[in-house]
Amino acid sequence: MLDRSFIRQIESLQHEGIPFCIATIVDARGSIPQIVGARAIFTRKGLAHGTVGGGTLESMCQKKALDLLEGAASTHFQRYNLQKDLGMTCGGELALFFEVHRRELTWNIVIFGAGHVAQTLCRFLVELDCHVVCVDTRAEWLERLPRNDKLEACRVGDYCDGIDRIVPGADVILMTMGHGSDMPILKAIENRKIPIAHLGVIGSDAKSGIVRRQLAADGLPHEFIDSIVCPLGDKVGNNTPAEVAVGIVSQLLRLRNGK
């Protein structure tokens, strides 16, 4: 059973955006230095919380965690004979399960604007396996968002201040109050060369043309302009916020799955 201090440590690391790896003893035979179910959290700096037994075993877990934090895998399973593999005198065997928690390995979605469509969209997205950040300048709209561990409401003085919340490889959606507030965000994203999976802007065909022509006139690269998905969302219904949000979710899932 996870104790509250362990959960608080995980929440703290997630809030700060610090990558971490949890090592858990999931099986054992014979004598081992901890119990089945023992857990330890490792960051790139070393042991952050808990223990799987200390000594040589924990040192090995720390090394494995560091390797995983630098790699692409999100999980790893390994069985050890403590005497043969680690030179320990315990003589038992155990199996460890490693879970890597790194935002780059998560489906990250950043939404600029917390208006009517975003309100419904966020309620759909938190039902999926993703992490959502919704950025807005208006506290009253952010307060209407659902309370969910998968969703962060981010209030900023200027929309461009929210650029720092974009994790490399994220999907980014612009649905602010209008064209005037979307354009500075687009320019800031291109200026900082942020690697984005997909960049979408809500609007009509007419708005799409205006946005692309203005960005071209301002000297932005054609490769960036062509990468913008606008209008955003599959046309699966009418223009009510709920049905627009359904179309956006549909398109995001297709794009995520490479279809």
Features:
single chain; 259 residues; alpha/beta; Rossmann fold; 2 domains; six-stranded parallel β-sheet; five-stranded antiparallel β-sheet; 9 helices; elongated
Q: What features would you describe in this structure?
A:
By secondary structure, the protein is α/β, with parallel strands linked by helices. Helix content is 37%, strand content 24%. The chain has two domains: 4-102, no CATH class; 106-256, NAD(P)-binding Rossmann-like Domain (Rossmann fold, 3-Layer(aba) Sandwich). The protein has a six-stranded parallel β-sheet. The protein has a five-stranded antiparallel β-sheet with strand order 3-2-1-5-4, with helices on both faces. Strand 2 (39-43) and strand 3 form a beta hairpin. Helix 4 (116-125) packs across helix 9. The longest helix has 16 residues, at 241-256. The two termini are 40 Å apart.
Rg from Cα: 23 Å
Question: How many domain units?
Answer: 2
Strand order of the largest sheet: 8-7-6-9-10-11
| CATH level 4 superfamily of the largest domain | NAD(P)-binding Rossmann-like Domain
How does the overall form come out from the CA principal axes? Answer: elongated
- Which regions are unreliable across 5 or more consecutive residues at pLDDT < 50? none
Q: State the helix count.
A: 9
Give the N-to-C terminal Cα separation.
40 Å
Structure summary, number of beta strands? 11
Helix and strand topology:
Blueprint: H1 4-16, E1 20-29, E2 39-43, E3 46-50, H2 55-69, E4 75-81, H3 82-86, E5 93-101, E6 108-112, H4 116-125, E7 131-136, H5 139-142, E8 151-155, E9 171-174, H6 179-192, E10 198-201, H7 205-217, H8 222-227, E11 228-229, H9 241-256
Parallel strand pairs: 6-7, 6-9, 7-8, 9-10, 10-11
Antiparallel strand pairs: 1-2, 1-5, 2-3, 4-5
